[in-house]
Amino acid sequence: MKNSEIELSLVEGLGPRGVTNMVISSVDKEDQTTQKLLKNYNTQNIQGLEDKQEFAYILNRFQFYYQAFKNGDISKEDFYDQANKYQWNLEDSIYLSKTPLKNVIRILVGKRPEDNENYLCIVDANQNGTYEDDVIRYIPKIKSVLGENIQPIAVEVDFYINGSARRSTIKTMLSFGYQGNLGISFYSFYLSRIRYKGQRFIICSDFLDRQSVYILPDMPYFTQIPRSRRIFGIGKVVLLQDTLNVVYSKYKNTINLTDVHGDPVKIEIENTISANDHNIVNINIPYLDIQGKNFLNDEIVSLDKYKNKWRLLYFWSDNCGPCIQSLPTLNKIRKNYLKQLEIIGIVDIFWKKENFVKILKDNKVTWPNIESPKDSKIREFYAVQAYPTIYLISPDGEIVKNYLTTGELEDVLKNYLTN
User: Per-residue pLDDT for 369 more than 60?
Assistant: First the structure.
């Protein structure tokens, strides 16, 4: 097709900037206009927490103040003051919703009376104006977020794209930074896949950095892509020796690709997995075999080799921090289910092979790992859009679970393997 616009979809996983911790301000440190709009939650009914303090992360401040102005909650002068403060272009308000959107993440932080060291939090995940129906969680330090396999918090938010409001679920993680500040990281980013002259490319944008976009060959190594690869607003990209013009609209969440003459280029747009849809690869269907040399001993490994056993496919990369942090968990799982389960790593090698082998040995990995096949049929079948991606295959050869997280593996395996 001749494409005019390519829309990026919200997907789960670490984006191109990797783990980025944004500091959150407590509500009482916001300016008076903002405090007025961040209406107080009733925290008196939350039992078991002391030294309570409320925090708020505003996803889109332009939208936040604009909808308040249109709704009569603040004056035009107050709105203009905020616009000047953040240097917004008021003409861009045509991309904003006049109807109020849910775009503030509210958090209550406190301590247990018997524990004066560790902080706990409650996130208003469904944004219904109360913490009473939400879960109390432990807040780790930033360096522990990945190592402790702490699960992201699913939060409902609204986006205004192409003239309509959309409700989405984004994954977030709270932590204390190195200077003791409360921060938030997002386990969601924007992605689209295209095929240009027969080759697949990805277009991705970080959830927080809406100023730039990356266009790369289709390899989901999202620990951190070099920032030098960013394209800001309007730029150029070289695909298969062709120089193309790029126009990225952060409000519409789309890009346009044209050739050097300004004409639309012929591309094929492929579906991406949305943050709420894990049915792109159906379960209860036969797996597709993958084979290759085991990095540890050069023996040929294939999924077919382990017939009559449960098989856990672990798609990962040596450039993926969360993947490496999860290796001890996988080692423990393999030890617990040694007779019933085999883990097979399918890895994208980003650095040198010797460095990857060192990662395996340093983390005492003995289960087989083979390089990710270049076969496009296999890539498309398993639809790996971000790392890590985990599949569970039954002894009968059927995919029973897909897009698992390491945090939920124990419960899933107990359910299937012990029953």
Answer: yes
- Angle of helix 76-86 versus helix 61-70 axis, rounded to 10: 170
pLDDT at 358 over 80: yes
pLDDT in tens, 81-106: 999 999 999 999 999 999 999 999 99
Q: What is the pTM of this model?
A: 0.66
- Tokens 């995919």 correspond to 399
